[in-house]
Amino acid sequence: MKIKYYLLQKEENTKARYGTIETKYGVYETPMFMPVGTRATVKGLTPEQVKEAGAGICLSNTYHLWLRPGEDIVAHAGGLHQFMNYHGPILTDSGGFQVFSLAKNKQKDITEEGVHFKSHIDGKSLFLTPEKSIEIQNKLDSDIAMSFDECPPASASYEYLKNSIERTLRWAKRGKKVHCNSNQALFGIVQGGPYEDLRKYSAVETVKMDFDGYSIGGVANDGESKEDMYKAIDYSIPYLPEDKVRYLMGVGEPIDIIEGVIRGVDIFDCVLPTRIARHGQAFTRDGKINLHNAKYVKDLTSIDSECDCYTCKHYTRSYLRHLITTGEMLGGTLLSIHNIRFLIKLTEELRVAIKNNQVLEYREKFISRYVKKDI
């Protein structure tokens, strides 16, 4: 069965929404943070640990799985759920973000047919098209597949973005035409940088294609300001249907998640919680902390006294610092558990705030503490 979104409540003072996503694995509430399992694994964690953190939908990456082990190997295993032993909904991105970062000469490598680039593994020449991206995702058998779009850099000019949107729309039509997995939802992606007219045009034209859900892309590029990110959301949301999921791609900073929810976004994903964990950093209510800092050598408190995760229930900052500074693998695992749970718990609290029409109060209270500390 395809996923189905149900809008259950709109917050009175903002555009925030509380809803549910019905899947063959159960019903999941939104707003929701989705952990990223790039290569069919959330780095350092078992599927059981991901589930215990409260995760619903989990992500995997089309580009990386295409290269290793290959979509046919995953299909032979029975699909991505069986292959990675994650029995919950999975979203696969199109591979576009990775491909465009590898395409060095944008003028030459991006053509109407697709993108020419070199493998980050062995330098082999590769070519990815909208049709190929969808074909791979069909074989991976994820619950949600993403359209193949062009991912322009944050520095792209207005004229470049205008032409890029037209290409993305043509690619979306091509991908939708070959999509043949009846149990898999397909999402369209809205682009347009920080420009109101481009975002409106992209959203309106993408919605005309009647996708199962819609994503706001181009908001997690290097060099993009927070102001431009929020503009992109504000300029896209009004033209997206209320009865479909709204997905903000690649966003995982706590305050950005809150701001996204306020603007009407339902689901978020980012590699941030596991990436910073591997470098000894952890989210807390009072800002991020860096456990490399010597002040935690004798600190026998948990990472966050208000957190209910496995790590905070069983381990101290002192012990976690010891693991991180000695390079023990367990350190990254325990911090990843905490950081993922922190963002999932944040969205759980936002759901309550929406139901009580208190999202703005929640934001004010959260920010008043969170911005006091730096890493």
What this model shows, in words?
This protein is an alpha/beta fold and 375 residues long. It folds into 2 domains: 4-269, TIM Barrel (Alpha-Beta Barrel), CATH 3.20.20.105; 271-375, no CATH class. The protein is built from 16 helices and 15 strands. It has helices at 47-52, 62-67, 71-76, 80-84, 96-102, 106-109, 130-140, 158-178, 196-207, 226-236, 254-262, 272-277, 310-314, 317-325, 329-355, 359-370; strands at residues 4-10, 17-23, 26-30, 32-35, 58-61, 90-93, 115-118, 125-128, 144-146, 185-190, 213-216, 245-248, 267-270, 281-282, 289-290. The strands form 4 sheets. Strands 4-13-12-11-10-9-6-5 form an 8-stranded parallel beta sheet. A 3-stranded antiparallel beta sheet has the order 1-2-3. Strands 7-8 form a two-stranded antiparallel sheet. The chain starts with a strand and ends in a 5-residue tail after the last helix. The mean pLDDT is 96.
